């Protein structure tokens, strides 16, 4: 096996450069993956913001999502074999070895999953960050999430209850040669946390699963489990709370805000029942009432406070996607020419 690889380095806040670095060796509990496909998320530009204090040094290898083949296994790993196809969330902001934007990446085996045979690398690479944002936001214990199922037990049911997923929007991943990274396939992911959040709420048996979206996506969102659709082009964010309460016949039991603007955060809090906790994808930009609480979702299972939850999640994902209980995003494959 060769000893060096190509990687895309962030060399300053807004500048990238392709260079070489050593291929890492897996330590105990880790697997080394030959990266076949990665996705681009809003988080990939957010982490570069100096105000967020993610980047501790330059250059750095980033990228949050990857799928590929296991090529080496660290001591103690019994759940994977070489040549297994896997998908996983990356964390280059912790160490370059864990970034997605390179030919080979390391990941702890306990927070990776096999790719079901019916899925391509591209489909699998669209999943990790948006899924984990939804699961952490909805399921993990308060204050990190809404606390719906802190052990990732999807047999827990909320029959008869109502939920609002803010930001139905577009639901398309685009695949093609959309980047100068000559090492793998690239997927652009937009607003897909919504897609996984709706499916999770359906599994948990919520009666009303309300979301706002462009009308052209209504049929698709209904197919995933949404029960009530609001046309985002007709109802402004400032009026969302009133409309949601009308559909749910009162305030809702759970909300996840995947837009994260001041207006959507305010609407989410307004339609949420007292004593409930709002997860949102951006830092808080609105006042939180005393009888409610809110948190900026840190959608990662790398961090210590989400790791136990993450182990339970990643152990079940292959089965959930294999049975169709969870579905990846739709992809438009582009030629890249």
From TrEMBL:
<dbReference type="InterPro" id="IPR011032">
    <property type="entry name" value="GroES-like_sf"/>
</dbReference>
<dbReference type="InterPro" id="IPR047122">
    <property type="entry name" value="Trans-enoyl_RdTase-like"/>
</dbReference>
<dbReference type="InterPro" id="IPR036291">
    <property type="entry name" value="NAD(P)-bd_dom_sf"/>
</dbReference>
<feature type="domain" description="Enoyl reductase (ER)">
    <location>
        <begin position="11"/>
        <end position="336"/>
    </location>
</feature>
<dbReference type="InterPro" id="IPR013154">
    <property type="entry name" value="ADH-like_N"/>
</dbReference>
<dbReference type="InterPro" id="IPR020843">
    <property type="entry name" value="ER"/>
</dbReference>
<dbReference type="Pfam" id="PF08240">
    <property type="entry name" value="ADH_N"/>
</dbReference>
<dbReference type="GO" id="GO:0016651">
    <property type="term" value="F:oxidoreductase activity, acting on NAD(P)H"/>
</dbReference>
<dbReference type="InterPro" id="IPR013149">
    <property type="entry name" value="ADH-like_C"/>
</dbReference>
<dbReference type="Pfam" id="PF00107">
    <property type="entry name" value="ADH_zinc_N"/>
</dbReference>
<protein>
    <recommendedName>
        <fullName>Enoyl reductase (ER) domain-containing protein</fullName>
    </recommendedName>
</protein>
């Amino acid at each position: 096996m060769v000893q060096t690889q190509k990687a895309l380095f962030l060399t300053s806040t807004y500048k990238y450069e392709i260079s070489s670095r050593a291929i890492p060796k897996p330590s105990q509990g880790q697997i080394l993956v030959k990266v076949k496909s990665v996705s681009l998320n809003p988080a990939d530009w957010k982490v570069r913001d100096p105000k967020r204090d993610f980047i501790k040094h330059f250059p750095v290898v980033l990228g949050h999502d990857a799928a590929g083949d296991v090529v080496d296994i660290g001591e103690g790993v019994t759940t994977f074999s070489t040549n297994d196809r896997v998908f996983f969330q990356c964390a280059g902001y912790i160490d370059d070895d864990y970034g997605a934007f390179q030919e080979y990446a390391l990941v702890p085996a306990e927070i990776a999953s096999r790719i079901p045979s019916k899925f391509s690398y591209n489909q699998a690479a669209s999943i990790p960050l948006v899924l984990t944002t939804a699961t952490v936001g909805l399921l993990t214990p308060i204050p990190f999430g809404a606390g719906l199922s802190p052990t990732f037990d999807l047999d827990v049911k909320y029959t008869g209850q109502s939920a609002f997923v803010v930001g139905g929007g577009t639901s398309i991943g685009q695949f093609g040669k959309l980047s100068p990274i000559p090492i793998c396939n690239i997927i652009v992911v937009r607003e897909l946390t919504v897609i996984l959040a709706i499916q999770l709420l359906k599994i948990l048996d919520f009666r009303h699963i309300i979301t706002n979206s462009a009308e052209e996506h209504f049929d698709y969102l209904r197919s995933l489990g949404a029960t009530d659709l609001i046309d985002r082009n007709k109802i402004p964010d400032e009026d969302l709370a009133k409309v949601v309460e009308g559909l749910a016949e009162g305030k809702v039991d759970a909300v996840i805000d995947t837009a994260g603007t001041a207006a959507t955060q305010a609407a989410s809090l307004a339609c949420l029942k007292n004593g409930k906790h709002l997860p949102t994808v951006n830092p808080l930009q609105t006042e939180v009432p005393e009888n409610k609480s809110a948190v900026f979702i840190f959608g990662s299972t790398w961090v210590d406070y989400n790791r136990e939850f993450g182990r339970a999640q990643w152990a079940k994902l292959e089965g959930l996607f294999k049975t169709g209980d969870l579905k990846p995003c739709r992809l438009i494959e582009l030629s890249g020419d």
